[in-house]
Design goal:
Elements lengths: L26 H8 L1 H12 L24 H6 L15 E7 L5 E7 L1 H4 L4 E5 L24 E2 L5 E7 L2 H8 L3 E6 L6 H6 L3 E10 L2 H7 L2 E9 L11 E6 L5 E5 L4 H12 L6 E5 L14 H14 L3 E4 L2 H7 L6 E9 L5 E11 L7 H10 L9 E9 L14 H19 L3 H8 L17 H14 L2 H14 L3 E14 L8 E8 L5 E5 L8 H13 L6 E3 L2 E2 L14 H28 L11 E3 L2 E4 L6 E4 H10 L5 E7 L4 E3 L4 E3 L3 E14 L5 E10 L7 H20 L30 E6 L25 H12 L16 H15 L3 H4 L3
Parallel strand pairs: 1-12, 10-11, 14-15, 18-19, 28-29
Antiparallel strand pairs: 1-5, 2-4, 2-6, 3-5, 7-15, 8-13, 9-10, 9-12, 11-20, 13-14, 16-27, 17-18, 17-24, 21-22, 22-23, 25-26, 27-28
Keywords: 2Fe-2S, Iron, Iron-sulfur, Metal-binding, Molybdenum, Oxidoreductase
Protein name: Xanthine dehydrogenase, molybdenum binding subunit apoprotein
Cofactor: [2Fe-2S] cluster; Mo-molybdopterin; FAD; Mo-molybdopterin cytosine dinucleotide
């Protein structure tokens, strides 16, 4: 049975939306349209007041609380509008793309005359038709909107077609005359690094004399590993709808994590001022980083057609084209050489990470930096040097993905922990605990002191006890001694993840707050909603500050004409940054309302201004018998009639953070989030097939803004991390064409892959030591790295074939083929052949 944390119940909130007038032929819509009783029952269960809902903490207006996602009812009843659901004029154009069939070469001929003559075609464009910038690199140049000369990967956009229907556009693409001088492609980042073929310069972080540390060490442990990439596989693919406006402008409706960047790039491509472009994002059907930079090209192409034709234009990529044309999580080649003492404690050494960046920089500089920052995970490296290379290969430019390089960096040190333990004959958990950051060893290799080290120790010890780690370890060792084929493995791995954008200027956010004369509240902020519950948390922040129920607070779509110059919703910072900005707006408005109330409503009553507060829908002044209350609605009406502004903007910039890349030292993170997972697996060593039998997780979110949402993020992050490390294999053929380009060939975890026992808890009683929003901690990315416990448990199971004297190299994803090859390697070395022993 799957077991989950139980919290206490939250009452249902009143629904904001009405049922549709006509019901589609499905159960959810039938409930919402035809049966008011059933609809309210369904919505009540979704919101936390029925048997379908997980129990949540008690609801109050003065403490962070669990609450259903603000769009949960819309999600399950089909009323949540995504890009393809938006109404558009009847003459809307549909776009198809002409993509490169080769990985490397030069475009020698492109003729689109036959394309333009195809039925239904309205326009076809290539690079010569772009009036403004043709390079849309998000940070550094290198990303042409269309191929001009050099072709750099299979799936690169050469031209685009706009037609009356999507089918007509796709058929017209086939009529193009495209001639390419194909050249040899490089698909191996190690070879690229040896040739010094980089998209950005190599970077080094160093602390102390690492060479001397190696010389003085009792034992040297070294190895290398390949860490595979990962497809974002968002349910809603890349999509946008662009409408031309008066003058030279456009309005862009897009599934996008970075509206301001898209505004900038669309304006530059069109050759118009930024204010001529408005970008709106209400929600995404998943993002995971894949829509941080790589949602912009499609908006730029659609905007070109919209301005050229004066017609609304729609782009949506078919799944296979989406997977070929867009980047993935960076694959990495990692190497380590570490010196340890006789107890397995790291004294120092060197780590090298090589990120496979694809053909252009995109965000690779920051991604490889973050891999370097996290190559220590939760352990002190001592005197160490960490080197990061950014290799150029002829594949789509790899990009942000949940964890942003951090998971790939952590893999190298987790491999080292297992290897050290086998070399000295200790349990891997014992070695891990000895190497944790600790008093006297709190400084990272990049010069930041790790706070809350006692929290990490306590968290791991709690999980060690609650999961019965040592009892299960004994049972598994006994089982493996008697089982010649099926081997079981167990591992506990920690997570220490830094929270902040490592590009300092991105650590800022804005918000816009409106209070209307009926007392209802509208909040807008720069963050985007991709299903993670950010909008829900922001509504809760506003409701808490204004002393209201969350039903009285509504959130609007993220728009660049409301909150400008926003940062992407990434780096796990959405709630931290935008929550603080929303709170800032509320605090400013409260101060103005308190001043007004003191001067006009309570004048002469002897009530102190400083004692005023908003709670339970009232402004309260004084205490005890002298307490006076006025309802929120009366307060707002009075303020309006007295010409007091009921609108406010908020802003927040994260303090303290800095990093000097010239010396590789600084404080790139405001704080760290911690967590740990215990995974138990079973492996059939004759087929390589494995299954996850049980998982126990304890994760640190500080004082949670919303325990129910945070719990879901931990569960989902773990499963996504498990999929990255076990089943999600990206495969290219020798010509550089992605052949795992759909759900038939690329295998994400399904419901059947959930561990039968799945215990997930949030750490309680440990608020953030830094002044984050209500002392909470970010929860978007850190849980993904909990999936490393599954990979480490697989290595543990295989190590039993060598009587735990060696942990085999196990590259990721640890597919059955890789697991089987690792088992065969150990059997060849240690003679553990069960069938021969059985006389077969």
């Amino acid at each position: 049975m799957r077991t989950l944390t139980k919290l206490s119940k939250a009452p249902a909130a009143a629904p904001h939306t009405k049922a549709p007038e006509t019901a589609p032929e499905n159960a959810a819509a039938d409930v919402s349209a035809e049966s008011e009783t059933a609809r309210h029952e369904l919505e009540g269960r979704i919101k936390g007041d029925g048997p379908l809902a997980r129990d949540t903490v008690p609801y109050t207006n003065t403490h962070p609380h669990s609450q259903a996602h603000e769009s949960a009812v819309k999600h399950v009843t089909g009323r949540a509008a995504y890009i393809d659901d938006l109404s558009a004029p009847a003459d809307t154009l549909h776009v198809a793309l002409g993509l490169s069939p080769v990985a490397h070469g030069r475009l020698t001929r492109l003729e689109l005359d036959k394309v333009k003559a195809m039925p239904g075609v309205v326009d076809a464009i290539a690079v010569s038709d772009v009036p403004g910038h043709t390079d849309i690199g998000p940070v550094f140049p290198g990303d042409p909107i269309f191929v001009e000369d050099e072709i750099s990967y299979v799936g690169q956009v050469i031209f685009a077609v706009a037609a009356e229907s999507h089918r007509a556009a796709r058929e017209a693409v086939l009529a193009a005359v495209v001639e390419i001088d194909e050249q040899a492609a490089c698909l191996d980042p190690v070879v690229a690094a040896e040739r010094q073929e980089f998209v950005r310069p190599t970077h080094v972080q160093q602390s102390g004399d690492w060479e001397q540390a190696l010389q003085n060490a009792t034992l040297i442990v070294e190895d290398e590993q390949f860490v595979g990439g990962q497809e974002h596989f968002y349910l809603e693919g890349q999509a946008c709808l662009v409408q031309p406006t008066e003058d030279e402008g456009v309005v862009v409706f897009t599934s996008n994590q970075h509206p301001s960047e898209t505004q900038k790039l669309v304006a530059e491509v069109l050759g118009v001022p930024f204010h001529a472009v408005t970008v709106e994002v209400r929600r995404m059907g998943g993002g995971f980083g894949g829509k941080e930079t790589q949602a912009s090209p499609w908006a730029c192409i659609a905007a070109l057609f919209a301005r050229r034709t004066g017609r609304t234009t729609r782009v949506r990529l078919p799944r296979a084209e989406d997977m070929r044309a867009t980047g993935k999580r960076h694959p990495f080649h990692n190497r380590y050489r570490l010196g340890v003492n006789d107890r397995g404690v790291i004294q120092g050494g060197e780590i090298t990470v090589i990120g496979d960046c694809g053909y252009s920089p995109d965000l690779s500089d920051a991604i490889v930096d973050r891999a370097m920052f996290h190559s220590d995970n939760a352990y002190s490296l001592g005197d160490a040097r960490v080197t990061g290379h950014r290799a150029r290969t002829h594949t789509a430019s790899n990009t942000a993905f949940r964890g942003f390089g951090g998971p790939q960096g952590m893999m190298v040190i987790e491999a080292a922990m297992d290897d050290i333990a086998r070399r000295i004959g200790e349990d891997p958990l014992t070695v891990r605990k000895r190497n944790f950051y600790r008093p006297g060893r709190q400084m990272t290799h990049y010069g930041q002191q790790v706070d809350q080290i006692a929290l990490l120790k306590e968290l791991v010890e709690q999980l060690e006890t609650s999961s019965d780690y040592w009892e299960r370890r004994r049972a598994i060792t006994e089982f493996n001694a008697e089982s010649p084929i099926v081997k079981r493995g167990l591992a506990l791995t920690p997570v220490k993840f830094g929270i902040s954008f490592t590009a300092k200027h991105l650590n800022q956010a804005g918000a816009l707050l409106h209070v209307y004369t009926d007392g209802s509240v509208m909040i807008n902020h720069g963050g985007t909603e991709m299903g993670q519950g950010l909008h829900t948390k922001i509504c809760q922040v506003v409701a808490r500050e204004l002393g209201l129920d969350t039903d009285e607070v509504r959130i609007s779509a993220t728009r660049t004409d409301k909150v400008p110059n926003t940062s992407p919703t990434a780096a796990s910072s959405g709630a931290d940054l935008n929550g603080q900005a929303a709170r800032d707006a509320c605090v400013k408005l409260k101060e103005r309302l308190f001043d007004f109330a003191h001067e006009h409503l309570y004048q002469g009553q002897g009530l102190e201004r400083e004692g005023m507060r908003l709670e339970a829908g009232h402004l309260v002044a004084g205490h005890g018998e002298s307490e006076r209350r006025i309802s929120w609605g009366e307060l707002i009406q009075s303020a309006y009639l007295n010409r007091i502004s009921l609108s406010e903007k908020g802003f927040y910039a994260t303090p303290l953070i800095h990093y000097d890349r010239n010396v590789g030292q600084g404080r790139p993170f405001y704080y760290y989030a911690f967590g740990a997972a215990v995974a138990e697996v079973s492996v059939d060593t004759l087929t390589g097939e494995s299954q996850v039998d049980r998982v126990d997780i304890l994760h640190d979110v500080g004082d949670s803004l919303n325990p129910a949402i945070d719990l879901g993020q931990v569960e989902g992050g773990f499963i996504q991390g498990m999929g990255w490390l076990t089943s999600e294999e990206l495969k290219w053929n020798e010509a550089g064409r992605l052949i795992s380009d759909g759900p038939a060939t690329y295998k994400i975890p399904t419901y059947g892959d959930l561990p039968p026992v799945f215990n997930v808890r949030l750490l309680e009683g440990h608020p953030n030591s830094m002044a984050s929003i209500y002392r909470s901690k970010a929860v978007g990315e850190p849980p993904l790295m909990l999936g490393m416990a599954v990979w480490s448990a697989l290595r543990d199971a295989l190590a039993s074939l060598a009587d735990y004297a060696e942990a085999p190299r196990l590259d990721t994803p640890a597919t059955p083929e890789r697991v089987l090859m690792a088992a065969e390697t150990l059997r060849a070395k240690y003679g553990a052949w069960p069938l021969k022993k059985s006389g077969v």
